[in-house]
């Protein structure tokens, strides 16, 4: 049961990141799959390096897409992701899959990988923090940007900084989640695509819930887990 | 004057003969450099380059390779084949998945160029030959042989019962393999489950692993050669599964992966293992690969692409390529190849057998042959 809860939390965090980028940054961020794989590869060096690399990737993507409309920005994010994947391929040359040793811990009698548990805790902390922020003054501004960024800008909200913040934080989180997955799964450049595909699918119904879309992302992932 | 003309003709004949002997054999290689199979693509490229080197050293044949990226879709494979055909190659080897090989087989017929499939297992290729496409050959296993090897394994370990775990995207391949296993073993089939691709249901393999771990069977046959198989065996062991896991190979046939996983009783098939010297090329392949590329060589797609290049090099030495392939026998690292009436390499014959290994107590033990 703990394993299932952790899975739901990880995929919910992924889905929330997709939704945040879509609503605040005006792009369907298709580079998350490759950023996830980047984090997994960096786990072979140090998992903490993935936080830094993810942040840099987020800043770079912000700069590359800040003046673009949603369709163009989405295409650029895809190209950006493919570029990261190719860079991974060139850096980690060779035909071998990387497998790292994984530590198992027991929680209420259930065996679970320590790295997976850590990913679940990080994801839960992210979702709870986000929901708390959304109910604060900053959250009101963020929702304003979500609803109408041009109008929000006219009212003096720094939409550019909000966009930069969201892209940096979400990319860093996805990269970190990749690093935790890297200690459990076989590492390869395309390993983030299943996560991206599934999260984009989950984000679609969650987005229908309007201002409750982030909480709905968790419910959709619970439903998906039960369904599959 | 007459003698001078005769002498000139003689010299010309001699020269043309020499030119024939020394001519270069240009071979096209389709490799998945991008996409889902790119890890295997890297092994295929390395192996093909090594084969070109060995063709010169062992058989005295100059091989020039032309590479094309076939990605992971049939469309890309078709473009790759078309490109290679335009480069004047005598034959094309490689491609990865079954849909890609089917497209390549059709393209081979259209272009009138031999295509030697070195990875795909679909029975559709043999069907195409039976229907008159003489340009297609295969040196990799067909689906039946995958089943033959698994049944052989069940016999070797004296399994009384087994459970089959398939990979949903490879359902056609897996079910064909299972059909052969069932027809060749007396062991009881305790059940069949297919886990879905992680793109569709990310944690499906976990629930399947947990379910199967609770069953009391001697062997779990795992039909997934991809990276999810690593996660599956980890979950299976984590949930207390005790049966031997027999994998179709792929990622779980790589020695460094098995060592890192360090889970006892993972068995796997491989086209060749360094420990079993099938021909004079077996050791040479493994040693030179390690020396040249700094990593282990037993990637199924890699070793069979190596053999595919060598088969074409040997067959193209003299005369008509298709006829030579149909009638000759060719040395590779995995054994000595000859092709049956449907242009399928005679896997299971005395000189060409797959190998089965098992990881136990920190090392790989060969179980078959």
Cα radius of gyration of chain A in angstroms: 17 Å
Question: How much strand content do the residues of chain A show?
Answer: under 5%
Return the average pLDDT of chain A rounded to an integer.
Answer: 88
Tell me how many strands of chain A there are: 2
Spatial order of strands in the largest sheet of chain B: 7-6-8-9-10-13-14
Question: H/E series of chain A, N to C?
Answer: HHHHEEHHHHHH
Quaternary state of this entry equals heterodimer
| Class from helix and strand fractions of chain A | mainly alpha
- The coarse overall form of chain B would be globular
Low-confidence stretches of chain B: 11-21
Mean pLDDT over the residues of chain B: 87
Order of helices and strands of chain B: HEHEHEHEHEHEHEHEHEHEHHHEEEE
Shape call of chain A: globular
Number of helices of chain A: 10
Descriptive overview:
- The complex is a heterodimer of chains A (228) and B (369).
- With 228 residues, chain A is mostly helical.
- Chain A contains ten helices and two strands; from the N terminus they run ααααββαααααα.
- Chain A has helices spanning 2-24, 32-42, 47-65, 70-91, 114-134, 137-147, 149-154, 159-182, 193-207, 213-227; strands at 104-107, 110-113.
- A two-stranded antiparallel ribbon of chain A has the order 1-2.
- In chain A, strand 1 and strand 2 (110-113) form a beta hairpin.
- Chain A starts with a helix and ends with a helix.
- The mean pLDDT of chain A is 88.
- By secondary structure, chain B is α/β, with parallel strands linked by helices.
- Helices cover 46% and strands 19% of the residues of chain B.
- Chain B is built from 13 helices and 14 strands.
- Chain B has helices at residues 2-22, 38-59, 74-86, 98-111, 124-130, 143-156, 171-184, 204-213, 228-238, 255-261, 280-293, 300-315, 321-327; strands spanning 24-31, 62-69, 91-94, 114-117, 136-138, 161-167, 188-195, 219-222, 244-247, 266-270, 330-331, 336-337, 355-360, 363-368.
- In chain B, the strands form three sheets. A seven-stranded mixed beta sheet of chain B has the order 7-6-8-9-10-13-14, with helices on both faces. A five-stranded parallel beta sheet of chain B has the order 2-1-3-4-5, sandwiched between helices.
- In chain B, strand 3, helix 4 and strand 4 form a beta-alpha-beta unit.
- In chain B, helix 8 (204-213) packs parallel to helix 9 (228-238).
- The radius of gyration of chain B is 22 Å and the shape is globular.
- Chain B starts with a helix and ends with a strand.
């Amino acid at each position: 049961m703990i394993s299932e809860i952790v899975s739901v939390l990880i995929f919910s965090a992924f889905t929330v990141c997709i939704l945040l980028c879509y609503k605040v940054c005006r792009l369907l961020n298709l580079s998350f799959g490759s950023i996830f794989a980047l984090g997994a590869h960096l786990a072979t060096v140090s998992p903490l390096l993935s936080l830094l690399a993810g942040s840099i990737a987020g800043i770079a993507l912000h700069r590359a897409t800040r003046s673009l409309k949603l369709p163009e920005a989405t295409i650029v994010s895809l190209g950006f992701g493919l570029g990261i994947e190719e860079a991974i391929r060139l850096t980690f040359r060779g035909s071998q899959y990387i497998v790292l040793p994984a530590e198992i811990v027991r929680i209420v009698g259930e065996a679970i990988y320590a790295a997976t548990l850590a990913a679940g805790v990080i994801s839960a902390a992210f979702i709870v923090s986000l929901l708390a922020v959304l109910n604060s003054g900053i959250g009101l501004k963020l929702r304003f940007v979500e609803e109408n960024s041009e109008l929000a800008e006219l009212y003096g909200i720094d939409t550019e900084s909000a966009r930069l913040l969201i892209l940096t934080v979400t990319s860093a989180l996805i990269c970190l989640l990749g690093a935790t997955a890297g200690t459990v799964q076989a590492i390869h450049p395309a390993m983030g695509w299943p996560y991206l595909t599934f999260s984009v699918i989950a984000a679609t119904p969650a987005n229908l819930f309007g201002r409750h879309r982030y909480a709905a992302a968790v419910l959709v992932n619970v439903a998906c887990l039960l369904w599959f | 004057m007459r003698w001078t003309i005769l002498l000139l003709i003689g010299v010309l004949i001699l020269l043309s003969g020499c030119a024939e002997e020394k001519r270069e054999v240009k071979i096209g290689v389709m490799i998945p450099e991008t996409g889902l199979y790119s890890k295997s693509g890297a092994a295929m490229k390395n192996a093909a380059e090594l084969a070109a080197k060995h063709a010169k050293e062992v058989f005295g044949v100059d091989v020039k390779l032309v590479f094309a990226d076939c990605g992971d879709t049939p469309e890309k494979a078709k473009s790759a084949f078309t490109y290679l055909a335009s480069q004047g190659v005598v034959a094309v080897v490689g491609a990865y998945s079954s849909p890609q090989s089917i497209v390549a087989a059709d393209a081979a017929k259209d272009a009138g160029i031999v295509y030697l499939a070195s990875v795909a297992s679909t029975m559709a290729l043999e069907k195409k030959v039976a229907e008159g496409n003489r340009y297609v050959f295969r040196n990799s296993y067909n689906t039946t042989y995958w089943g033959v090897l698994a049944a052989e394994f069940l016999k070797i370990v004296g399994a009384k019962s087994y459970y089959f775990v398939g990979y949903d995207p490879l359902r056609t391949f897996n079910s064909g393999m299972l059909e052969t296993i069932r027809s060749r073993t007396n062991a009881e089939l305790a059940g069949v489950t297919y886990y879905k691709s992680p793109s569709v249901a990310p944690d499906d393999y976990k629930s399947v692993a947990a379910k199967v771990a609770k069953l009391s069977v001697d062997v779990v046959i795992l039909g997934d050669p991809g990276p999810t198989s690593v996660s599956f065996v980890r979950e299976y062991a984590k949930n207390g599964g005790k049966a031997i896991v027999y994998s179709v190979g792929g990622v779980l046939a790589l020695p460094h992966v098995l060592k890192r996983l360090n889970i006892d009783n993972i068995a796997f098939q491989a086209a060749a293992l360094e420990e079993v010297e099938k021909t004079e090329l077996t050791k040479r392949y493994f040693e030179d690969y390690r020396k040249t590329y700094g990593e282990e060589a037993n990637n199924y797609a890699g070793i069979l692409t190596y053999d595919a290049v060598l088969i074409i090099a040997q067959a193209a030495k003299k005369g008509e390529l298709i006829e030579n392939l149909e009638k000759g026998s060719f040395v590779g690292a995995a054994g000595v190849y000859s092709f049956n009436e449907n242009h399928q390499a005679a896997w299971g014959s005395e000189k060409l057998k797959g190998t089965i290994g098992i990881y136990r107590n920190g090392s790989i033990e060969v179980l078959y042959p």
